[in-house]
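To: structure desk
From: M.T.
Subject: fold request, one chain
Message: Could you run this one when you get a chance? Sequence is below, nothing fancy, just the single chain.
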Amino acid sequence: MKKALVALLDALGFKGIWRKHSPEDVLSSMRGIKALLEDRTRRISDLIPNAGEIFRAMEVRVEFLSDSVVVAALHPEAEDPLAFAAMAVDVCSRVAVLQREASLATVPLAYRGAIAFGEAVLDDRFLLGPAIDEAAACMELANAAMVWFAPSAAEQASIHGANIADHLATQYLVPLKDGSSYSTLVVNPFFGGQELKNVGSRILDTFDRKQLSVAVKHQNTDAFLAHCARHTRVENNPAK
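Reply: Done. Structure tokens follow.
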């Protein structure tokens, strides 16, 4: 097994989405998001100065299964501080693109998930290992639309003091479905890109607040997005 940083995500409210949107529109939106992630260039290497060789040694995987998404970065020297930072930048960058573009798609979607660090095997058909298990166990625990660092990834970031490209991830107290909370890094969906003014409202509009449990997720997500807006560079700030 190789060491990997793995993000597992799924779309909130996807079950029964065909009641509100045509299957053709749903599939078209998801195909567009998938193509964008798979074709994303290594421009993200510019976020870590002098890290070109580090990025070239990294293997990146993006896989879709219905509304579930896997984004993984593997590196032969994953525990090296610069290599881990490069992995974190790559994974968080792609997750931020996914969150942003999914919210702006014809059929808007809000994603929730978790990022874990550890050993993993990823071949053409199977994904397994401790990192996969932890990410899968954590991906549905947040009571909001956010993608957060599970304990293994948070510990690795803490050990290396990884500054994940300024505002690409932000420290936040993640509300969990059991009523507890966990302070960790969370991917900032407002980082980079264009057309950010509508991202926050589009994410929030995906919630049908007629049910109390969904209304609580909406409130938690609204508070998180407000936090991100305050901690994002002025030129990228959708609140401006």
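Reply (cont.): Strands lie at 2-11, 59-65, 68-74, 111-122, 127-128, 147-149, 169-175, 181-187. Let me know if you need anything else for the meeting.
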